[in-house]
Amino acid sequence: MKKVKVEKGGKFEVFYKLWRKTLEGGLFLYSEDSVRFIIEDELPKEFLRAEIGKGNKYVFLAYIDNKPAGYLLTNKAKGGIAFGHWLGVDTKFQRQGTASALLSFWEKDALREGVHKLQLWTTKNNIFFYKNRGFTKGGNFPDSWFGQDHFLFYKTLRKSDEKIFLRDFLKKRRG
Predict the structure, then answer these.
(1) Which helix (H) or strand (E) segment is 15 a member of?
(2) Rounded to the nearest 10 degrees, what angle do helices 45-53 and 12-24 cross at?
(3) Which CDD domains does the protein's record reference (predicted)?
(4) Which whole-number Å values give the CA distances from 7 to 59, 74, 173, in the listed order?
(5) Do residues 123 and 151 make contact, with C-beta atoms less than 8 angstroms apart?
(6) Domain with 68 in it
(7) CATH number for 160
(8) In the predicted model, is pLDDT for residue 10 greater than 80?
(9) Are 65 and 73 within 8 A, CB to CB?
(10) Does an H or E element contain 8, and which?
């Protein structure tokens, strides 16, 4: 297995091209019309660029042999919870540890940020993947986004502690 290199805050254009490729390639089980809606209306390019630029979303990029292999788009953590929005791997790099490397990197980064749980939604094609990486299925949401069944998963990283997940706020407040 080749070594997977992961970085946070990678190049936006690299992320965006790979995100579109996986979305249009059917990785997320959505219809062609739903994919068009997501790309053109729900998450247009400039909106994503702005959200990442403002720090409301984070991008993690994975590379194999210096080629973009996968990505993870997350929301800024709130209340000690980090939310994974989109995780995708180019078909050429699947089953090579890319998604696992992204999750591992995210977990370490989230701990540094004061997070105590990771949370995400997924479709039926990825249930076993997340279970095998220590995530717990927290619920079912049938016939949900874009007509697909979605499943809530979470992973506990540590016990919640307000002093940790509110540390930046508390530090500012104390002056």
Answers:
(1) helix 12-24
(2) 140
(3) NAT_SF (cd04301)
(4) 8, 13, 32
(5) yes
(6) 4-174
(7) 3.40.630.30
(8) no
(9) no
(10) strand 4-8
pLDDT single digits (tens) 16-49: 999 999 999 988 889 999 999 999 999 999 999 9
CA separation for the pair 114, 137 (Å, rounded):
23
Count of domains forming the chain: 1
The closest of 115, 121, 30 to 73, measured between CA atoms, is 121
Would you say 142 and 151 are in contact if contact means Cβ atoms under 8 Å apart?
Answer: no
Token pair in block for residue 78: 């709130």
The length of the chain in residues reads 175
What does the H/E/C string look like for 58-123? EEEEEEECCEEEEEEEEEEEECCEEEEEEEEECHHHCCCCHHHHHHHHHHHHHHHCCCCEEEEEEC
